[in-house]
Amino acid sequence: MENAEVKLEVKESDMEEPLVSAVLDIIREAMKQFTIDKEVATYIKERLDKEYATTWHVIVGRSFGSRVSYEMSHFLLVKCNSKVNIMLFKCGY
Q: What secondary structure letter does DSSP report for 3?
């Protein structure tokens, strides 16, 4: 997806705006560099773990159901290019 604009739509979030903005930048980078969902997820997780401490969980795919526990102010669900969904959350307990 290199050189293509990555369109992101926040579907659900309880993060503070500065963190949302930083995470969306990381997602854009991942979507530009990788085309395989697992590689996108790995890139995002490794960046978040490094920059915002562990333990982050990242799910990337076209369709999935979920019910997760997470630390307050650390959940984000994004739709990318009207196709792929990315759910990420921090949960270290």
A: T
Is the preceding omega at residue 42 within 30 degrees of 0, hence cis? no
d(CA 88, CA 23): 10
CB distance 85 to 62 below 8 Å: yes
- From residue 66, give the alpha-carbon distance in Å to each of 18, 27, 84: 25, 20, 15
> Do the beta carbons of residue 35 and residue 1 sit within 8 Å?
yes
How many alpha carbons fall within 13 Å on the CB side of residue 36? 4
pTM: 0.91
6-25 pLDDT, tens digit per residue, is 999 999 999 999 999 999 99
Q: For 39-76, what is each residue's pLDDT tens digit?
A: 999 999 999 999 999 899 999 999 998 888 999 999 99
Please tell me the distance from the alpha carbon of residue 27 to that of residue 58, in angstroms, as a whole number: 11
